[in-house]
Amino acid sequence: MTDFPVEPTFPAVRAWYAAGGAPSEAVSQILERIRAESPGGVWISLFSEKALLDAAKKLERAAKLLAPEERATRFPLYGFFFAVKDNIDVRGLETTAACPAYAYAPAKSAPVVELLLQAGALAVGKTNLDQFASGLVGTRSPYGACPNSHNPQYISGGSSAGSAYAVATGLVSFSLGTDTAGSNRVPAGFNNIIGLKPTRGVLSTEGVVPASRNLDCVGIFALQCSDAVEVYEILAGSGARESAGPCPRSSRLPRSDGDIRRGKPFVFGVPDKLEFYGDKEYQRLFDEGVQRLRDLGGRERRLPFAFFQETGNLLYAGPCLAERYAAFGEFLETHAGQVDPVVTAIVTGAKKFTAADAYRCQYRLRELRALTRPLWRELDMLFVPTAPTIYTIEQLRRDPFRLNANLGYYTNYVNLLDLSAIAVPSGFTRDNLPFGVTMLAGAFGEKRLLPLAEAYHKTANLPFGACRRQRRRECMEIAVVGAHMRGLALNHQITALGGTFSRTCRTAPRYRMFVLPGEPARPAILRTDDGCGRALEAEIWNLPMDNVGPFLSGIRPPLSLGTVILEDDKEVKGFLSETYPLASAKEITDLGGFRAYLGSAEQPGR
């Protein structure tokens, strides 16, 4: 049997099964790809191979009892693998919201997950996120910063970072995220995939760790529009619309973009005030996107953007923030040392607002909704950049508040105004970074948006996510013996560049180890053939060849890249030290490795 599809769109996966493939045969391939191609910061937990294989075989047995046409009806997502953001409950895996101190074992899966399982889909595992879904960056997590699928020095976007990466790289066919202020749309835009954010309340948020309970939405990531729609139709109507009108139990969306292809006219709005924070490439690509809509028959209308901006500012700069504090603020304050300090600072900022402020905010929000609601009778959609620019992981580390706020310029107002949205891939910068656009409509506007989004995506003629790029990347094996090992101080330097863990091993018994002065503590190894050396603990990491240079540029003297001999006599690249600083350095060879030193009484402070 041929390999499971590299680009696992729904048509490709169905064709693979039609040719004789079986879900149980795909399990080992999917897990092997995840192990080989997932850098740190993508997954928080995975089902074991046995558990996933048992679920696949159970599905196969149930399907065999049905005629082919019955199987398609009973199991419309037969054998599709999916991932779930780790603030959504999945029975059998902990829910952490990217905070180990908060973790709990759910008694049952969230309804949105259960509906997918009943439809024949197979949940692979839980993905990383900005802690408590508070961020648009994908870096605010103790499980590591999730890298961009096209350039690991850049952010993936958040908070649904891992879910977007898993789809973009073809590890799963679709995934679930959540979206309060853009958490499903921004990572879709940064990873060249579809991000469908349905109307608030259409998809159930039961079993979702709340960020802002009145605004939270479950979102869908997929490689193409039609795939996202199939998932949406299975989940639509599972929620409850308590404040914005009835929630339809059936929300079937149109499947064809034929009217758009035939040039049926439509009207799209564009903000009169566009902001790109100096990013000329994103500005150029958005202008090209506007022209693409004109070519599809669209008529552009410039709209005042001030009301949208004002609404967006209410979310994090106003008393709307108090709803996040109500959800988990007290937990943050009682677990201060176990929570990301940026998340804590943002959410506890709500304490400065009064109850009177909250009421004034609600009054103004009603006015803003009334002022913007008539637009949806005149427009087929509002067309905006998904994000005004993109940043590197390092830039976010240096300036976490302001840069995160910049990313919400086109997203923060959407759920406050009760809008539906689809983030669509649109192009690439000259540095090969994805750029995306978002199409917006009023509540229940998904039916209006989908044909436009599908036609736009097809005419862009873009690759699916980063699937083929991921498979093409050649890697170098690198042995690390110190602070770059898993869980240690410099591990982020290798995971941020797409490095993936391979195995633990030992060096040949030919090396001495010393501790270099400075912070963080770094070891240095020196090869010796005089019988004074010994085998040392090491880890082997696979680093994409195109990122070896950037990795080396961050290595400080006296270390340099050389050849390390392993216990089995295999030679791999690794870091060796020059001899000049070692005469005064502390030798720790007899401890057998850097981890042993960190846990020993010889480490300063112990």
Shape, principal axes of CA atoms? globular
Strand content: 15-25%
- Structurally, the number of domains stands at 2
Strand order of the largest sheet: 1-3-2-4-6-5-10-11-9-7-8
Helical stretch tally? 22
Number of strands: 19
Which superfamily, in CATH terms, is the homologous superfamily of the largest domain? Amidase signature (AS) domain
Distance between the termini: 57 Å
Low-confidence stretches: 242-251
| Structural class determined from secondary elements | alpha+beta
CATH architecture of the largest domain: Alpha-Beta Complex
What is the CATH level 1 assignment of the largest domain? Alpha Beta
Based on the structure, what is the oligomeric state of the protein chains?
single chain
Whole-number mean pLDDT: 90
Describe the structure.
The chain is of the alpha+beta class and 606 residues long. The chain has 2 domains: 460 residues, Amidase signature (AS) domain (Amidase signature (AS) enzymes, Alpha-Beta Complex); 125 residues, Hypothetical upf0131 protein ytfp (Roll). It is 34% helix and 19% strand. The protein contains 22 helices and 19 strands. α2 packs antiparallel against α3, α11 packs antiparallel against α14 and α12 crosses α13. The chain is globular. The termini are far apart.
